[in-house]
Amino acid sequence: MSSILRRVLHTAFNRPYSKPTHSCGELNATHAGSNVVLAGCILPERKISNRLSFFPIKDFSGTTQLVVRRDNHDQPVLSSLSRVPVESSVLINGRVSVRPTKDRRPSPTGDVEVHVDSFTVLNPAAPVLPFYPSDDQAIVNDELRARFRYLDLRRTALANNIRQRSHVSRLVRDALHTEGFLEVETPLLLKSSPEGAREFLVPSRLSQSDTPLFYSLPQSPQQPKQLLICSGAIDKYFQFAKCFRDEDGRKDRQPEFTQIDLEMAYVAWGPHPNAHNNPWRIGGHEVRAVIESLMGNIWHNVQGIRLPSSFNVITYAEAMARYGSDKPDTRFALEIQNITSLLPHHHQSSLANLGQVLETLAIRRSENLPFVRADDQYQLTDEPTVTRIVLTSTNLLTWLCNLVSPAVDPEHHISLNNVLKVNVGDTLYVSRRHAAPKGGATPLGRIRTQLAESAQNLGVSDVILIVSWLPHLVPGDYVPPAYPHLFTHHPFTAPMWQDITAMYDGRIDEVRGQHYDLVLNGTEIGGGSVRVHDAAMQEYVFSQVLQLDESEKASFDHLLQALKCGAPPHGGIALGFDRLMSILCNTQSIRDVIAFPKTGAGTDPLFKSPATVTNDVLSQYGIQGIRT
Amino acid sequence: MSSILRRVLHTAFNRPYSKPTHSCGELNATHAGSNVVLAGCILPERKISNRLSFFPIKDFSGTTQLVVRRDNHDQPVLSSLSRVPVESSVLINGRVSVRPTKDRRPSPTGDVEVHVDSFTVLNPAAPVLPFYPSDDQAIVNDELRARFRYLDLRRTALANNIRQRSHVSRLVRDALHTEGFLEVETPLLLKSSPEGAREFLVPSRLSQSDTPLFYSLPQSPQQPKQLLICSGAIDKYFQFAKCFRDEDGRKDRQPEFTQIDLEMAYVAWGPHPNAHNNPWRIGGHEVRAVIESLMGNIWHNVQGIRLPSSFNVITYAEAMARYGSDKPDTRFALEIQNITSLLPHHHQSSLANLGQVLETLAIRRSENLPFVRADDQYQLTDEPTVTRIVLTSTNLLTWLCNLVSPAVDPEHHISLNNVLKVNVGDTLYVSRRHAAPKGGATPLGRIRTQLAESAQNLGVSDVILIVSWLPHLVPGDYVPPAYPHLFTHHPFTAPMWQDITAMYDGRIDEVRGQHYDLVLNGTEIGGGSVRVHDAAMQEYVFSQVLQLDESEKASFDHLLQALKCGAPPHGGIALGFDRLMSILCNTQSIRDVIAFPKTGAGTDPLFKSPATVTNDVLSQYGIQGIRT
Predict the structure, then answer these.
(1) Element housing A4 (H / E)
(2) Least confidently predicted of A240-244, A572-576, A597-601, B452-456
(3) Interface test with A, best of B81, B201, B499 (most A CBs within 10 A)
(4) DSSP tag of B597
């Protein structure tokens, strides 16, 4: 550190310094002539001429241009300010002036500059930093950015995401409080299930017959929130809930994440009585109304967009048939077509006997240009059960023959091509699959998603959709202690009331659940359900539907007991706040909307976690490492 | 379950039920004549006469009286409603009527009653419940209440605390957002220090050379929040932060708790330049202003009380001298008096040579009646270094002689008694202690606190106080990785600027820290400091003041590195939200302001945590139980 810096630094420490009078980002022409005090990071000097230098100064609110002229009076200021390392915190005393018209910039403070009278270095940066966040040109690798996250957070784009996240959380809380919701904190040190899969454990210093005891971190506050509503203390609960999932790293997953979690008492068990044409055929429309209003509020305030007051509702069966996905991206029309009924009768019967259907996804040159280009470029062939056919004058009337036997005659091809509106040059993806869809996507659905991800210039705008009427539960759906899917299929979802008899009759495949997913642009950002509130029904679901054994059921004792205390009917939803923010901020990854994220592998290069622990510490918890 | 219940239940399941039109707690005379639909828990029937029964119905908002008359028309309703188990969830269709004047009650809905036309049982309670929350007379043991917390939460008082907690959190967030603070979430899976004391560990499935790796749960977001401010992305940060501390159970501690955590960039390092008589002699007055405004806002809105706009500030030295405590309860005047200077000169010199002082706490019959009664009753003698003397006509002029030698003559006793304003019948607690106080309380301070806790009818109102100017750090203050005290003494606190030279000269005992505690009615509810922002100074504190070794220092590498990037000067505070709510709700324990608390031993009787985990699960984490 140079002696001049040591001196100004000493001055800064040993004297109270003046308070900044303005933020760097708020100065404009109305401040012309004012004396101001600014605090911020000093950015690289731009020498405009031998007589003039610019130094941008930046704080949380923006950047202002500082000006120092090389005349006799300014000489000492300029020579010392030039020596302050970039990114140092400085305090500037100066005077605002309006720039000549030709020098104005379109940035927020672009009309003004601040002539520096004097300055104090509050904290000098090291002469060389790992990288320079103000340098947009430098390519900095992800590992370095993660390790020096506090420097990376100085980048305006990333800082804006973190600030936007706070704004949206405020908006959501305000909206929910206004609708009578109360925020209640639920425990993070919760019960560890004996199976323990996917939960993070927390060793305790308590033990039972010399066996160490563990808490676990919740994957969601599902049980506490249901117990809270069962208590009747609260009729509308919400929480920005910290959740944890110990699973192998994935692109867009974090071991810890945040949910906007809601639950409401006295939700209906059936459709609104006056809404005969309403596609929402289940209960819980109170929850739907809250979510539609909340999302509308966010989009209006953050994006300046008016969403429709009522979101489209599609059933799981329809979503799988038309889009091949339980979280369809309906921003573009590209739809899957089931061509089984267009085949000759004997083909129809043999498919029916196998319980199968034949589907196509057509990429038409006449209408799907972005998809045509993506298809030409990528020629997707990695789905083993999907055949990709480019129609030519040679195969136009024979393309089905390689897929089904006996061969299909040209007349059938002609009518099929007419129905599909395809011609020479178009691409057909053809797939044979089980008629009853399962899981999250069909093979053609995956092709459709890949094409959309590769297609450029789709020119789409946000679409929010509700997927509803999902299959209820079948044995094996319950992967203890958690949910095979982020939000769906927990064992507390109520069956549709029309299907209760089927459920009690053991026709479990026919039972649909009172479940809803919120899908935004093809990403599932939330899910919820109307819950079972009848203890006998919940016990039946555990024993007869999911076929849990006694010890598995025992971990739900408190819930069954709470239902038996006259719990009100209830339902709720949870929204993934990280994903929602990632979509709102248009980032590649949820890591860009989290202040201190972990890597895909679950490590934290900044805090260097996880880390080793000594045996002495472990022994307090009655545990030790397994020697290999 | 009776068949009639099964039938109504079936009805409730199989049909959408009407939405409640009103909350039970909102009905009043303006609703007279309206048809209403109410949903809630049914409470025990009160048979007023052979012809009339009352059933209170309760929801989150309050209780309304339902009326059923035993006439021909109502007979079926009454006989079935009488058979619904208490605490069942019911849906009532009825008509509001105003009570005759003589029957009105002072409760919020006491002017009206609802005549029941029909009802639906939404969920019947079991015929016998573990206890009945509506029964104020029954004494229910704590263990049962904890195990069936969802029933206990039906008690109005407890439910109100949980609701009040939500209101206060909203108030705090609104106030802080309005002042430009942004809420940022920081990681909960953080770095485990090698020492690991007092931290909860979280095993990960990652390992390093076959050694298992662990995260730890944070005791506070101290390091992440400082790094955030160092980044410059945010100038005013706050968070309702989940914190964890693994320590042996105590009356008013929970293994997980919530802090209102703040940090601000560019806080001053010295007193306000225009405030010569201001007792706030350190930096960070920006933080002080935020807290005073915030607390004033809470007290005004929640308690209807105007707090002084500026809280009293007392130094640690003065608090220890006058009240014998670093968190003095100044709601009452009872003060400790140092009588060293009133002793004969040779006693003064010998005390000075020993570095000691002689102090008294006088309980005067003439003025401290509640304390006199407490003293008479408890005759506190459990402090070994304190002598309790009841003044009598015999010992009035000799009482000091048993405490110091050589004997003190009667003339000195007369003048001393005059200064102390004591006479026959008064009690004196006398203590000899080291002149430089250490830790949280002196022996007389503990006596004073015990007397105050025992005294009845003190008739005091809330007093908030700031204790400031604490001793900085000395070797051994740093108990890795945490803080010997809830909030104080972490290694990032800046020295007072007047004492920087003393610190660098190695006169560490003379250095005072830029630290402040917020004390409410003798309870520490918050603490904070101005932080060191200069990397060289922080390194000096680690190495020379705290004498950490290289490996201990290594765990702070990221902080030192962040300071070297030109971090702005910063400071902050953290408030204990559970304690604050406990004081606001006037509860005996913080457990009464937490929805699902743990016992003093750290167990959760509701969720039955912590619990055992199978060896299979543990082995995924590379750990096993230690066999004994």
Answers:
(1) helix A3-14
(2) B452-456
(3) B201
(4) P
Domains of chain A: which residue ranges? 3-123, 159-315+463-594, 332-454
C-alpha to C-alpha distance for A371 and A375, rounded to whole angstroms: 6
Nearest residue in chain A measured CA to CA from B91: A266
Tell me which DSSP letter residue A374 carries: H
Give CA–CA dist A597/A591, Å, rounded. Answer: 5
Please give the torsion angle defined by the CA atoms of residues A491, A497, A499 and A502, in that order, rounded to the nearest 10 degrees: 90
Among residues of chain B, what percentage have pLDDT more than 90? 56
Question: Binning pLDDT at 50, 70 and 90, where does residue B12 land?
Answer: low
Angle, alpha carbons B266-B271-B276 (nearest 5°): 150
Check residue A161 and give left, alpha or beta (phi > 0: left; psi -120 to 50: alpha). alpha
What is the average pLDDT across A530-558? 89
Residue A301 per-residue DSSP state: I
Q: Please list the helix, strand and coil fractions of chain B in percent, rounded to the nearest 5, in that order.
A: 30, 25, 45
Residue matched to tokens 């906007």: A260
The one-letter amino acid code at B11 reads: T
Summarize the confidence of residues B159-187 as an average pLDDT. 97
Give me the CATH code for the A3-123 domain, please. Answer: 2.40.50.140
Substitution target from B134, B156, B231 for chain A, most A beta carbons within 10 A? B231
The average pLDDT across B332-356 equals 93
Amino acid A396 reads: L
CB contact under 8 A, A189 and B244: yes
Q: Which of residues 321-340 of B touch A (CB under 8 A)?
A: none
Fold of the A332-454 domain: Gyrase A; domain 2 (3.30.1360)
CATH node for A159-315+463-594: 3.30.930.10
pLDDT score, position A71: 76
For helices A156-178 and A577-584, angle between their N-to-C axes, nearest 10 degrees: 120
- Name residue A540's amino acid: Y
- Residue A206 and residue A189: Cα distance in Å, rounded? 14
Q: Are A132 and A155 in contact (CB under 8 A)?
A: no
Kindly list the distances between the CA atom of residue B475 and the CA atoms of A585, B478, B485, B546, in Å, as whole numbers in the listed order.
47, 7, 15, 4
Cα torsion angle, B163, B169, B172, B177, sign = negative
Strands of B161-221 (E only): list them: 182-183, 190-191, 200-208, 211-217
Other beta carbons within 10 Å of A162: 24
Give pLDDT, residue A348: 94
Q: How far apart are CA A564 and CA A537, in angstroms?
A: 11
pLDDT in tens, B357-389: 999 999 999 887 889 988 988 888 888 889 999
Q: Are A80 and A9 contacting, i.e. CB atoms less than 8 angstroms apart?
A: no
Residue type, A78: L
The whole-angstrom separation of Cα A41 and Cα B463 is 41
List CB contacts of B237: < 8 A, sequence separation 6 or more.
B181, B182, B183, B184, B225, B228, B229, B261, B262, B263, B264, B572
Decide if B162 contacts A184 (C-beta within 8 A): yes
| Residue-level length of chain A | 628
**At a CB cut-off of 8 Å and minimum separation 6, what does A408 contact?**
A343, A344, A347, A400, A401
Nearest to B232 among A17, A60, A205 (CB): A60
Given a contact cutoff of 8 angstroms between Cβ atoms, the answer to whether B80 and B62 are in contact is: no
Fold identical between A159-315+463-594 and A332-454? Answer: no
Residue with tokens 């390689």: A402
Q: Which of B338, B327, B383, B342 is nearest to B361 (CA)?
A: B338
Q: Inter-chain contact B184–A595, Cβ cutoff 8 Å? A: yes
pTM value is: 0.92
pLDDT in tens, A535-547: 999 999 888 888 8
Q: How many distinct helices (H) and strands (E) make up chain A?
A: 18, 22
